From TrEMBL:
GO terms for biological process: mitochondrial electron transport, cytochrome c to oxygen. The chain crosses the membrane at residues 94-116. Pathway: Energy metabolism; oxidative phosphorylation. It comes from Scheffersomyces spartinae. This is Cytochrome c oxidase subunit 5A. One of its GO terms (cellular component) is respiratory chain complex IV.
Length: 151
């Protein structure tokens, strides 16, 4: 008894799907959708999306080429979250802005560095370096680079 009621429900749902198959959308309605998608109102966009969803329930062989193209554009086109990040010419502005910022940073560093006191630390002169080399030789430090006296 339960199995028969399930079969009846399945037959009813199949018959309602075949009876309410949506008509094909006109080419005037979906033609050149890429060019005019942004200018459509939100309500028209939603209506068109719903109509295409209803048509896509059918086998894809029944869809017209214009419907397939419109469905592809709505699903994967460059609109909404997939809109390009940069408009034409903006990449050059970003590049030259970055280069200008780096050059300004280098100039600022050089300017501040030129104002710093000039004498070097005592440990950077030649006598200090030779004295530290002699000290390292006397302690047999780092034999791999030549400071050690032992052969």
């Amino acid at each position: 008894m339960f199995r028969q009621s399930i079969q009846r429900v399945a037959l009813r749902s199949q018959s309602t799907v075949t009876q309410t198959a949506p008509r094909a959308l006109s080419n005037a309605h979906i033609g050149k959708l890429e060019a005019r998608w942004e200018s459509l109102s939100k309500q028209d966009q939603t209506t068109l999306i719903d109509e295409l969803k209803a048509r896509q329930v059918l086998p894809w062989s029944e869809l017209t080429p214009a419907e397939k193209k419109a469905a592809y554009y709505i699903s994967f086109g460059e609109w909404g979250p997939r809109q390009p990040l940069y408009l034409p010419g903006e990449r050059a502005k970003v590049f030259w802005g970055t280069v200008g910022g780096c050059l300004a940073g280098i100039a600022l560093f050089a300017g501040i560095r030129s104002l710093a006191p000039g004498p070097e630390p005592v440990s950077m002169n030649r006598e200090w370096q030779e004295a530290s080399d002699e000290y390292l030789k006397s302690k047999n430090a780092n034999p791999f680079t030549g400071y050690s006296q032992v052969q």
